[in-house]
Design goal:
Elements (H helix, E strand, L loop, with lengths): L13 H24 L10 E2 L20 E4 L2 E4 L17 E3 L5 E8 L3 E15 L1 E6 L4 E6 L4 E13 L9 E2 L6 E5 L2 E3 L32 E4 L6 E4 L3 E2 L7 E10 L7 E6 L5 E5 L2
Parallel strand pairs: 1-3, 4-18
Antiparallel strand pairs: 2-3, 5-6, 6-9, 7-8, 9-16, 10-15, 11-12, 11-17, 13-14, 17-18
């Protein structure tokens, strides 16, 4: 039996046969696959939240590019939303603005009094909070209880101001910024310092709290105590200036009355330093 009737002297042109046969075979395969797909079961991918996965290394390979949004793994779509790393900000003490405790606010002065350059630094380095304190009375010779109002607390904020410079051959003085340069901010309100605590009296709760230079216990800010050699009377003195060197820092506490049920994270100490700038220190 012959499938192709050819003349005795005629030969089969195989290139033409192959050129016609290949498209027919490919088209037939696509038709068959299309028919079979109508009867195949449908698998819906299940989204998985990566944040609920304990060990993401089990589902996310280490070599994967973090910029990829999703990846199909074992029939499961894994949505990847990488958190960008936080931007690293370099703290600059010479800029005005908000800062954390123990971060200085600084300014630079050149050729001060014709002697030398110097840097001035102000910082807030701690705080304490009490509803009741005990202060030492020279008159009674004992500690006396001092209570804040029923719905208030005493907040002691520790402040230091000092100056330094590259040349130790001279020691210029500078008029300092005193306690009146500071206010306590709370929800947009500025609070003045309280006068409840006598600046000449020792506060028992702070007698074990060192000052900025760790050479004595902390005392009221910008205040020196002058003791009369005859009567023993103690008088607070504000020298109004500071001298070169960290050991000559004006440091101590400022006292404010704050709400008893308030959160310390809502407070900041604001400082106004005239033309040199302003700063605010978070107390949390």
């Amino acid at each position: 039996m012959r499938f192709i009737d050819l003349a005795p002297d005629e030969e089969i042109e195989w290139p033409k046969v192959i050129a016609v046969a290949i498209p027919c075979v490919v088209f037939s395969c696509f038709v068959i696959l299309g028919i079979l797909s109508l009867f195949a079961p449908v698998h819906h991918p299940v989204p998985v939240n990566v944040t609920n996965v304990t060990n993401t290394s089990e589902i996310i390979p280490s070599w994967m590019n973090a910029s990829l949004k999703s990846r199909l793994m074992n029939g499961t779509v894994v949505e990847v939303n990488p958190t960008p790393p936080p931007k690293q900000q370099i703290f600059n003490p010479y800029l005005s603005g908000v800062r954390n405790m123990s971060q200085d606010f600084s300014w630079h002065r050149e050729n001060v009094s014709g002697y030398k350059d110097m840097n001035v630094n102000v910082t807030v380095w701690g705080w304490s909070r009490f509803h009741q304190v005990k202060y030492y009375s020279d008159f009674w010779g004992k500690y006396i209880d001092q209570f804040a109002p029923e719905d208030k607390d005493y907040l002691f904020v520790y402040v230091a101001e000092y100056m330094d410079g590259p040349n130790q051959s001279s020691d210029p003085r500078m008029w300092a910024f005193g306690s009146s340069s500071f206010r306590l901010q709370y929800h947009g309100y500025l609070l003045d310092q309280t006068t409840d605590i006598d600046p000449v009296s020792r506060v028992k709760e702070l007698e074990n709290t060192p000052n900025f230079n760790n050479d004595s216990w902390i005392r009221p800010f910008d205040t020196f105590i002058e003791v009369d050699q005859v009567t023993g009377a103690r008088t607070p003195i504000d020298p109004q200036w500071i001298r070169m060197g960290r050991s000559n820092a004006r440091n101590g506490y400022l006292v404010f009355l704050i709400d008893h049920d308030s959160d310390i994270r809502d407070y900041s100490l604001n400082g106004n330093f005239a033309s040199f700038g302003t700063a605010a220190w978070r107390l949390s």
